Amino acid sequence: MQLKNRILMSRMTTDYPDGGNVSAAAAIKQVVDVPVMVVGRIHTPELAEQILASGQAELVALARPFLADPEWPDKARVGDAASIRQCISCANCVDTMIVEQNLGCAINRTTGRETAKRLAEQRAARLCDWRLYRPRLDQQGGRRCHACRLRCVIRLN
Asked: Which spans in 36-103 are helix H?
């Protein structure tokens, strides 16, 4: 079952409180006997843990926090919350999808551009080869072998 209300259908930007849907999820949980998931401006592991510990929901869903920091769950699991790049709820991700038909994030500039970086590294390897250096990529995607680190340094002017 999926319930959508005015809050869930809108973009929860900075004018919404953190965990703005938690009270609605808790109310739904009182009348159903299935697991309840909550989503919406849950940016910190502490807030997610608080929601689960208080029994307001059985599951916490994260969307934009993953765009800001794809390592969010790993950092939270090991207790490294201080290094998590926090989503600022600016809705840039949604806006870029609408305007550019591509995903972007104001906090994580590589979001939605993962393949562009890979192609840039492959282009650098081709330029090294063209300049008679012999680069060797250790995997598709362009990670440089440490053995050829110094020989593959090029200037892109």
From this structure: 45-53, 64-68, 72-77, 92-99
Residue 94 contacts residue 11 (beta carbons within 8 Å): yes
Contact 76, 49 (CB under 8 A): no
Q: Is 89 left (phi over 0), alpha (psi -120 to 50) or beta?
A: left
Q: State the Cα–Cα distance between residues 113 and 144, nearest whole angstrom.
A: 19
* Cα–Cα distance, 65 to 74 (Å, whole number): 13
How far CA 44 is from CA of 69, 76, 136, 139, 151, in Å, comes to 11, 8, 41, 34, 43
Specify the 3-state DSSP secondary structure of 137: strand
Q: What is the pLDDT of residues 59-75, one digit of tens each?
A: 999 989 999 999 999 99
Question: Considering the entire predicted model, what is its pTM?
Answer: 0.64
| Cβ proximity of 83 and 7 under 8 Å | no
